[in-house]
Amino acid sequence: MLQRGIGEGVFRPGLDPVDVYVTIASLGSFYLSNRYTLSTIFQRDLVAPGELERWGQHIVDTVLATVRAVP
């Protein structure tokens, strides 16, 4: 998928698939492994379904912002 997106000009060239994967995994893993501590620190229920959905969308937005080709 990544190579196809690069070929179609949707994603910028030179992306390392491993870097993209590690970025996605890191954003998800850090949030989930620290959700209770972060909920306490920031006084927000990061385990609530809406918060999990919001964070998932943030991951999508962040990754797309880093891989998209600049028009």
What does this structure look like?
- The structure is a single chain.
- This protein is an all-alpha fold and 71 residues long.
- It has one domain.
- Helices cover 70% and strands 0% of the residues.
- It has four helices and no strands.
- Helix 2 (17-33) packs antiparallel against helix 4.
Structure summary:
This protein is mainly alpha-helical and 71 residues long.
**What gap, in angstroms, lies between the N and C termini?**
20 Å
Count the strands?
0
- Number of DSSP helices? 4
Which structural class matches the secondary elements?
Answer: mainly alpha
Could you say how many structural domains there are in total? 1
Radius of gyration: 15 Å
What's the shape? elongated
Q: Please give the largest β-sheet.
A: none
Low-confidence blocks of residues = none
Properties at a glance:
71 residues; mainly alpha; 4 helices
Secondary structure: elements and pairs:
Elements: H1 2-7, H2 17-33, H3 35-42, H4 49-67
Helix pairs in contact: 2-4
